[in-house]
Fold this protein.
Amino acid sequence: MPRTDFDRHLRLLEDDLLMLGSMVEKAIASSLDALQRRDFDAAQEVIAGDDHIDNKRFEVEEKCVNLIATQQPLATDLRVIIALLHITQELERMGDYAEGVAKIGIAMGDEPPLKPLIDIPRMAIKAEGMVRRSLDALVNRDVVTAQVVLNDDDEVDALYEQVYRELLTYMIEDPRAIRRATYLLWVAHDLERIADRATNIAERVIFLVTGRLTRQAHPEEGAQPPA
C-alpha cells in the first residue's frame, strides 16, 4: 500500500473513532437527562444504544488489527494505531458507565430523589467536557489540551468526594435513606469513572506525541450496581 493510501486509511480510522466518541458523549448526556427528568423511555434508549457503541468499538478494533496485519507499520505509525486501539476501549467503557446511569434511573422508579441533583449534574458536565477535549487533543496532537484534561480530573474527584460525604451523612442520620443515597452514589461513581477514562485518553495522547507515558493515580474500580 503506497504511503498516501496508508495515510488515508489512518484518517478514516480516526474518523470512525471520533464517531464512536460522539456516540458515547450523547449516551452520557442522555443518561443524565433521563435521570433528571425521570424519563424511563429515554433511559431504555440509552441502554439499547450501548449495543451500537459495542459494535462500533469492535469495528474500529478490527480495522486497527487489519491495518497492522497488512501493512506492518513501524515506529510512529504503529504508535498511532496502538493508541487508537486503547482509546477505543476507553470509549466503550464510558458507554458502559452511561448505560449504568440509565439503569440506575430506571431502578429509582418514581420515588423522589433523596436530594436535589446539583453536584452530580456538575460532574456530568465536567466529565462530558473532558471526553470532548481529550478527543480534540487526539485530533490535533495537542499536548496542552491533553494536560488540561488531566487537571480537570482533580475537579471531578473533588466533586465526587463532596457528593460522597454528603450522601454518607444522609445515611448516618436516617438509615431509611440508605437505598436512595446508594443510587446517587452509584451515579456519582460512574461519572467519576468516565472522567478517569477521559484522563486515560489524554495520557495516551501525550504518549503518542512525546513518547512519555504520564500516569495519574486512579483508584481501582469499585463495585457496580447489578445489571
Observations:
- The mean pLDDT is 90.
